[in-house]
Structure formats: C-alpha cells, structure tokens
C-alpha cells in the first residue's frame, strides 16, 4: 500500500507509508496491526534516531551559534506561543493550553523527513538542514524541562495576565451547566470526573439505577454528546475550582475521579472537601505506588484496576468451584 501510494501519487515512500497508515487506521484491522507491529516500533525508533545522529554535524553549533539559537527559539517559543494562543481562543483551560504548547515545543520525527525531502528537492540548503537537526535535537533534550515549567508558569500567568484569565473565563456555554437542569439532579448527585472507558461505564450504571450524575470532562465533544442525551455535563479541568463549582460539588453526595490523568487528583479532592467537607471520594489509579501515596494522603477510596480485576476473577472462580462442589455432593447423594 505504501509503495503503491508512492508510485500512484508521485510522492516519497515515507509519505506513501503515512497514507497507508491513515487508511489502515480507519479499518477494522487497525488494533491487530498495531499490536503485531508494536515490537518493531522500538527497533525502528532506534534506527531512525541513530541515522539522525549520524546526519548531525556538531560543527554547526560552533560555526553558526546565532542561527541555531534563532531556529531553536522559533521551535520552542514561537510554536509554543502560537499553540497557547489558539487553545485559549478555543476556550480550553489554561492548564490544557500550556500542556499542548509544551508538547509542541520540539520538532518531531516527521519534520526530519520533511527536512530531508527539502534537501533532496533543492528547497532547503544543507546548512539549513543542519540548523533544523541541531534545533530539533536540542529541543527534544530540553522538552522535559519545558514540561516541568508548566505548573509554575501557569500560576505566574494567572497572577499577572488579566487577558489570559479573560480568555480562559468562558462565554463558552459548555463550561456552565444549563439553567434548565432539574434541581433534583443537583442534590446528592454523583460528580463524575472523566467520561472515558471507565467513566462511561460508571455513568451508564448510575443512570440505569436512577442515580443523578453530573459529568465533568475536558473533551468538548463528549460534553456535547452527553448533553444531547440529557445528562448534565460541564467542560473543563476539574482541578480548577470553577469546574467543580459548576458541577454543584457543594451539594453532591460523592465525587468519583475516573480520569486517566492522575496529576490533579489531589487538587480535585482538596477543592471538593473545601466546598463539601462531608463528601465521599472515589479515585481510580494506575499503579500500586500511586495507590499507596493516595491512601497515605487520605485522598479517598482508591481503586487499582489490576486489583479489582483480580478480585472479580477470584470471585468468579470460587463461585464456579462452589457450584461444582455442590453438584458433586448432589450426585453422590
């Protein structure tokens, strides 16, 4: 498919492979293909970055330090600021905007391919290619530090930038519960943070049993779909007080944190207990170490996926064993 795309459309083999991946992603075999090619991913990643390292000429750092610095600034600062502004204009929380901008503060693998094609087609000089390689390697090395700076930068921007606060403070209808929501659904309700694989099942079970639930999720499409189904939902980061306030956490009976992102769990629990000291909190976690820390901090009741799965399987095995034993006793008698 990759070769056919390259020949048919006259593009490079790499771009043809990209088209093939897009087509395969939409097929029913996408998960199987991803599973079977997963072991090869690390091997190809090693080969790719080794080849990039072999192409890099360290002398460019000494011969053109100013050009390298400018290229690096465009990558780290320029891309980040553009992403930050776009995400804020789309009315996403500041935390989301900073995370997206930090994610884009580097050059990815596809950019290497484009730079190589630029040299091949005569659109980029070898000197320019070296600058791109130098900036990309440095930006990748600095990216963990950029992510580490997200939280303090977020506090600094909120404290000093009225514009950022204004952009983040929404005229967005999804960030506020509609005034038409029945007040009976906002008394002793369950506030569910996250409507992914786990949260979706929790919400469905609660609704089937007639338990009122309010969902908080950062995905606007999910919030729109829930509202279309008549489920009270609010868009935003639940680590921000305004989101839990909109979910009427002060009147809730329980807070269920089912989001896969566990960074803001403690902050969510702190806000919930400040506004509702008697609230019961259930937390989903992904590792035993994190579960131990959350229990130590008394965040709430902690559920680890592997433990719950093992408990359910053990219960089913024991139930089957008891049924077999009862059947044997009945046949013996």
Tags for this model:
alpha/beta; 8% strand
Helix and strand sequence: HHHHHHHHHHEHEHEHEHEHEH
How far is the first residue's CA from the last residue's CA?
66 Å
Number of helices: 16
Could you tell me the radius of gyration in angstroms?
26 Å
Described by strand count, sense and barrel closure, the largest sheet is: 6 strands, parallel
Kindly give the count of domains.
2
What share of the residues lie within helices?
Answer: 55-70%
Low-confidence stretches: none
**Reading side by side through the largest sheet, how are the strands ordered?**
3-2-1-4-5-6
- Count every beta strand, where a strand is a DSSP E run of 2 or more residues: 6
Average pLDDT over all residues: 82
Structural class assignment: alpha/beta
Binned strand content: 5-15%
Shape: globular
Describe the structure.
With about 325 residues, the chain is an alpha/beta fold. The protein folds into two domains: about 1-165, no CATH class; about 175-310, Rossmann fold. Helices cover about 65% and strands about 10% of the residues. The chain is built from 16 helices and six strands. The chain has helices at about 1-10, 15-25, 30-55, 60-65, 65-90, 95-105, 110-120, 125-150, 150-160, 160-170, 195-210, 220-230, 240-245, 265-275, 290-295, 305-330, and strands spanning about 190-195, 215, 235, 255, 280-285, 300-305. A six-stranded parallel beta sheet has the order 3-2-1-4-5-6, with helices on both faces. Strand 5 (about 280-285), helix 15 (about 290-295) and strand 6 form a beta-alpha-beta unit. Helix 5 runs antiparallel to helix 6 and helix 5 crosses helix 8. The N and C termini lie far apart (about 65 Å). The mean pLDDT is about 80.
């Amino acid at each position: 498919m990759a070769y056919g795309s390259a020949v048919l459309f006259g593009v490079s083999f790499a771009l043809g492979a990209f088209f093939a991946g897009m087509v395969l992603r939409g097929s029913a075999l996408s998960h199987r293909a991803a599973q079977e090619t997963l072991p090869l991913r690390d091997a190809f990643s090693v080969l790719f970055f080794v080849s990039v390292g072999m192409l890099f000429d360290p002398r460019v750092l000494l011969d053109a330090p100013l050009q390298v610095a400018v290229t690096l600034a465009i990558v780290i600062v320029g891309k980040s600021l553009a992403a930050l502004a776009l995400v804020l204009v789309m009315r996403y929380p500041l935390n989301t905007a900073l995370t997206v901008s930090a994610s884009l503060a580097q050059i990815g693998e596809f950019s290497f391919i484009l730079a190589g094609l630029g040299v091949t087609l005569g659109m980029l000089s070898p000197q320019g290619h070296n600058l791109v390689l130098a900036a990309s390697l440095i930006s990748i090395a600095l990216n963990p530090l950029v992510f580490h700076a997200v939280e303090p930068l977020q506090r600094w921007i909120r404290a000093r930038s009225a514009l950022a606060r204004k952009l983040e403070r929404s005229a967005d209808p999804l960030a506020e519960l509609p005034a038409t929501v029945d007040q009976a659904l906002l008394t002793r309700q369950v506030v569910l943070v996250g409507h992914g694989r786990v949260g979706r099942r929790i919400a469905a079970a609660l609704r089937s049993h007639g338990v009122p639930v309010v969902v908080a999720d950062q995905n606007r499409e999910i919030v729109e779909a829930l509202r279309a189904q008549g489920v009270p939902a609010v868009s935003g980061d639940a680590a921000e007080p305004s989101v839990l306030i909109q979910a009427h956490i002060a009147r809730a009976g329980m807070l269920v944190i089912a989001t896969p992102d566990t960074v803001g769990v403690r902050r969510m629990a702190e806000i919930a207990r400040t506004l509702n000291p008697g609230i019961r909190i259930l937390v989903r976690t992904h590792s035993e170490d994190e579960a131990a820390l959350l229990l130590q901090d008394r965040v709430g009741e902690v559920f680890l996926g592997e433990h719950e799965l093992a408990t359910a399987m053990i219960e089913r095995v024991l139930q089957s064993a008891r049924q077999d034993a009862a059947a044997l006793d009945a046949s013996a008698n």
